[in-house]
Structure formats: structure tokens, C-alpha cells
Amino acid sequence: MADFNEISTLIAKDLLSIKAVFFRPEEPFTWASGIKSPVYCDNRLTLTAPDVRLDVETSLQKVIEEKYPDVEVLMGTSTAGIAHAAIVGHLMNLPMGYVRSGAKDHGRQNQIEGRLEKGQKVVIVEDLISTGGSVIEVANVLREAGAEVLGIVSIFTYGMKKGLSRLSEASLTNTSLTNFDAIAKIAAEEGYIKHEDIEKLLKFRDNPSDESWIKG
Hints:
It is a single chain. With 216 residues, this protein is α/β, with parallel strands linked by helices. It is built from 7 helices and 10 strands. The N and C termini lie far apart (41 Å).
């Protein structure tokens, strides 16, 4: 049986070590939406760090095997989930494909790439869950194609209330290898941030639109 606490700690340490998740509460990043954020997340960096990549892919495999033993196909989200779906699909000897953000305007005009039969049991592979909007769209495309979406696996989640609520409304379950709370705790323990910064980070997580956390 997979030890999910052990996996969460391992992946949190890995992501911090390569700055795939990077905290800067004193100098917030600005998202495209204009929101000030104390955290920057780029899980694509795991692909260029072989040791971390191995931890991520084998951990995703463990989660899928435990949570979704009946899975028949892995489907990555475009574009960040594609590589992870491909690698884990190889490890598990499963077919994989991916879902485009929109249908192609040429050829067969596919939005789903790879073979998918009606009724097949699918697990979606995503790198990051924030508000949940993009992965819900992917699930809807797969369901419209006749797939049975068993759930989502991802590397990291912010655990934002909006995201959790939207996934629940869409009847989707996400299992992330690690999460915002775990990474904030380990970041403080290992000196990436100050212990007093944790409260700021969790205030941001609970309401990203409220910038009062910046002042403490």
C-alpha cells in the first residue's frame, strides 16, 4: 500500500530543491490575472531533473495503481500533463493520449489525440491544480466522447477552495502527490522561508484575491 504522507514529503522536497515550486513572500510574483502571489510553480522543471522526474513518475504510478486499478487509458492535459502521462503510461504498459485545449482546425480536427473507445476507463494526468477550470474542461471532453473518467492525478495542488468546490460540482476526484500546505511546512523547516511566513501563505491560499496577506 502506498504511503501518501511519505510521497507528499518526498515530492515537496524534490520540487523545492529544483525551484519548481518557489516561495517569495517578501517579493510577490504577479500572475497573468494580476493577482499577487507568494509562490511560483513550474512543474515542467521536473522533466529536466532526472532524479526528481523518476520520483514524480513512479509516485504517479503508485497513486494510479492504488486509487484506480481498473484504469485502461491515461489522458494528459495539454500541454503540461502530456509528458507525465506518456512516461507513466510507459511504466504501466498502458495506452495514453492527450486532450487539446481546442479542436484542431485541420486534418481530422481532433481534440482528443490517441485512440479512445467509448466506455473506456480513463485517468487524467495533470501537473498542477489551482482553480480546476482547465482539467474540468478536459474531463468534459472525454465524457462527451463516451469515456468513463475515473479521476485525476496531479503533481501539485494549491488546495484552493474554489478549485475544490468546482471539482466536487463536476463529480471529479483529484489526488495530488503533494500540496501547498505540505510544501509550505517543509519550506519553513528547511529554511526556504521563515516560519512566520506560513500564515501569510495560507491566507493567500484561502483567498488569492485578498492581498492583505502581503502586509502580514
